[in-house]
Design goal:
The protein is mainly beta and 145 residues long. A hairpin with an 8-residue loop joins β1 and β2. It is globular, with a radius of gyration of 14 Å.
């Protein structure tokens, strides 16, 4: 079992933009992160990106931080892109997520690509639906269940 944790929770009210980091986030079952543009009744309610993926972009000399790739939850200590669809993740005490998609097709170069010169989300970001809601804060554990 991996020892993984949440680095940041991030939200935005528009799609395709960098997100703002929060002290805590409220995940709503079958909906997503409260107040986030991507929340709703679909399979990509919450997006996750590993800080390890971000580090590869930082290594290219780009000053990027949690939320810059429009991810809702930034993690460390777990290779998210290796998890099969259907994997369930317990985040903190209460939240249960189910992985629904690995990566995505970017049909248009979004604002993030133009701002940072590369986007790792299409390759290594993952998407999940919220099975059980609750509050998530930086430092919370992330466990594959």
């Amino acid at each position: 079992m991996h020892k993984a944790s949440v680095v940041a929770i991030s939200t935005s009210d528009k799609k395709g933009e960098k997100k703002v980091n929060l002290d805590k986030g409220e995940l709503i079952a079958a909906h997503g992160l409260k107040g986030d543009a991507h929340a709703g009744d679909w399979h990509r309610q919450v997006s996750l990106l590993a800080s390890e993926s971000m580090a590869r972009i930082q290594a290219k000399g780009l000053a990027v931080k949690a939320g810059d790739f429009a991810e809702n939850i930034t993690t460390e200590g777990i290779e998210l892109w290796r998890l099969p669809v259907g994997t369930r993740l317990q985040v903190g005490e209460a939240v249960l997520l189910e992985v629904t998609q690995i990566g995505k097709t970017c049909h248009h170069r979004c604002a993030i690509f133009h701002q940072v010169g590369d986007c790792v989300m299409p390759r290594e970001g993952i998407f999940a639906k919220v099975i059980t809601g609750g509050t998530v804060t930086p430092g919370d554990s992330v466990l594959v269940v």
